[in-house]
Amino acid sequence: MGRAHVASWAEVETVLAGELVSGNDDPRASAADLFRRALAALPEQARAGRVRLRADAGYFAGELARVAFFAEVQFAIGAKRIAPLWRILDSISEDDWTDAIDMDGAQVAVADYRPVWWPAKTFLLIRRVRLDICQVSADPRSRRRRTLHPDQRALPLDELAETDAIYGYSFVLTNLDVSTPDKAAAVEHWYRHRTSIENLFRDSKHGAALRHLPSGYPEVNTAWMWGALLAATMAAWLHQLTATEGPTGQLSGWGARDGKAMIATLRHRLIRVPARLVLQAGQAILHPPPGHHLLAEILARLRKLPTLP
Prior knowledge:
The longest helix has 25 residues, at 218-242. A hairpin with a 6-residue loop joins β5 and β6 (106-111). By secondary structure, the protein is an alpha+beta fold. It is elongated, with a radius of gyration of 24 Å. The chain has helices at residues 28-41, 44-47, 62-70, 83-88, 150-153, 157-160, 181-192, 197-208, 218-242, 263-271, 294-303; strands at 3-9, 14-21, 52-55, 74-78, 98-99, 106-111, 123-131, 166-174, 244-245, 251-252, 276-280, 283-287. It contains 11 helices and 12 strands. α1 runs parallel beside α3 (62-70) and α8 (197-208) packs across α9. The protein has a 6-stranded mixed beta sheet, with helices on both faces. It has a two-stranded antiparallel ribbon with strand order 1-2. A two-stranded antiparallel ribbon has the order 9-10.
């Protein structure tokens, strides 16, 4: 079947690079090459600005960090919960923690640690989230339980409930400025929003059938993957080109709560709309049914776009 690995331009939710690999393959092996292709696909105007990379712990690789560093791209890459990181927690005092932004019960701290061969001025950003015992599963394989400190993870639930506090931990390696508590909290807040790529995957899966790779041949599935990703990217392009910019710079589009319309919404409101084509005075006019005005609004906004030189 295969699994899609995608690098996207987060602000506009468009795909820059992607590849379909076996579900058994380690994505870290090709992460640096995927990033190079994504960086090359950025428009020249965007590359001239500040480019930052954020990647999940599945791409925890020194090569990716080095490629970003030499490309003058600041990075924040999730770290696997390996033994050296747990040991670092012993050197962090309670005064070193500061409250996270927009996340109840969460705090962040910074440690001077970097793995071998990672770029200089890389620091370890740590987030801990206080948990209630009812939020922790007895199953040691559960995702949340794996975030606990190994000493707490080994306890049965009744003994865990008697501890002073239960925390789940996440680790991020970054060369962004985390020199003050406020800056560290801001970096963690920005990194936390890496999950926005899930919107792109959800739209590709439910709106363009990415969840149904049809063939046992990787070449066929790769073409299918790119068709789905291109559909999601075209939906994002439509949003960027025709949405209305509000006073805060946020775009108001055609989807739920004036957000970006998903593919299924566009299919229902824009594409699969019956209409009648008539000729009046030698001019072809398309008459959609009552209440279907989205096509006319989008075409009007597209016509107002400036032409390229």
